[in-house]
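Incident log entry.

Two folding requests arrived from the same account within the same minute. Monitoring flagged them as a possible duplicate submission, but the sequences differ. Recording both here for audit purposes.

Request one:
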Amino acid sequence: MPIAGLGLHVVIAAFFAMHAVRTGQDRYWLFILFAFPGIGSLVYAIGIWLPEMRHTRQGRQLVGGVKRALDPSRELREALDAVETSANAQNRMRLAEAFVAAGRASEAIPHYQAALRSVHKDDPAIQVGLARAYLEGGHPAEARKLLDELIARKPDFRSSEGHLIYARAVAALDERNQAEEEFETLIGYYAGYEPRARYAEILAGWGERDRALELCERSLREAKRLPSYSRSMNKEWVGRLQRLQKSLAGPLVS
């Protein structure tokens, strides 16, 4: 269906053209995209856009989501096979991430721990992964302790994912004042809508109905202005905000 007088394939080509200019790709991509907007966009997506997206957290989530939809257990099977072939740190990290994605965070913990006993013992990314496994495995105190130690050792280290894990851990420990401070800071700079959704749910769980509802409404108003690709990346979290808003906006039960 045409959009504002343009074919959808031209709109997609324009999106990839903007990406090519912004990321400094070779100029011949612009010719390919507009001379052959359908096949050109497909080639650009496979050759340039998707590989780049794999290096961002949201991109990994998007690509991983597509893979899981097609074959939910494939990544876990392949990661298990890789560790059986070679139990190196990289393969253990891959398996740990697959366990977390499969909702089996407790099984990820020993693999992250094993990776940290190797030459990567001071790798902050592995420590952040382990903290997430602790948190989602039901051990928020261990997650917070690990991240506190990481911050003390590497005060210049910055990780939005680690910050979100820390905020969630503090909230799970019912340290409300610090949790509020951490989430308010996250909302100010975090690229996605996950902190907003999680914070609204936490506020609702604390009985802060009005604050949770206001955060939902404000976030959903802002989400309407997101470009389509960003809405796709945030679909899960916007959906959770919508469902929470609906439940909070209903009549109060006396």
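Request two (distinct sequence, not a duplicate):
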Amino acid sequence: MTDTDPSKSRDWNYHPDLPLRDPSVFRWPPEPGYLARWFGRNWLTLSERVMMVLLAVVLWLFFYPALETAQSFAWGWIVQSWAVTFAITALTAGALHWYFYIRKGQGMRLKFDRRGQAKGNKLWNFSDQVHDNMFWSLGSGVAILTGFLVITMWLMANGYAPTITPAGNPIWFVLSLILLPIWSAFHFYWVHRLLHVPFLYKRVHSLHHRNVNVGPWSGFSMHPVEHLLYCSSLCIHWIVPSDPILLFFHVIYLGPGAAMTHAGYEDLLIKDKRRLALGTFYHQLHHRYYECNYGNQEMPWDRWFGTFHDGSEEATRITRDRKKKMHA
């Protein structure tokens, strides 16, 4: 590390305090004070999750088709659903990319990797990392995410999937908002572990992992098979009582939310103050070292199953040894 700035090192332009602490809400024994602070940080401030809920309400009121129109499959409401999903995904990733990588509104502050987005490299379609990621995100990504959305709306509209209303079931509605990101993290971990099986990694997941140095367009850039597995998180609405607002929140969390978590920066700074959480060093370590940190920080699976990388040199050595054994 440098003598002047402990947040910089030989390998990283920026990293948080190391080794990484355990921020999981599933600590044992439970810590009421920590849980209260976690809840307040995520749900009682203008956090990224609260912003997603507000956006879901706006989309429900003004943009996505009404549930009654989804009782039969028709091109009108299906195309409308695709267009809205395309727009929110493109606007989120595009705005973040413009601010951080074109306007350079934050410079290198809180940016994990020193490098910019790659150009002129045949590794990428169009020889351009951003254009490649846009192609996969807005192509198969939006199409498959919309497919799950359309099927779920049809199931809800016809009574095949159980539904609630915020007014009629306020406690379950609020509880569902809190639990959906935790469910998505659980689902993501196990799907991610499956995708790192060498057969699937080489043929499917390696497309996403070309993004060693991630950017906003990287998050939803995947092989179509990976999009199918990733978006299958929405199937929870087929069996657990839900509502269109909860469904749209989940869609935002999976699509535009991936652009936020792969921004390449830890937080958005406004007047030198951290105002919006974006990427995590936890997942940045996964993109660099591959066989570690398959989940996210809220679920304890990586710690429980020995795949946690805490940012230390010893953890890097262990992870590299695991990778050699898996891909031998």
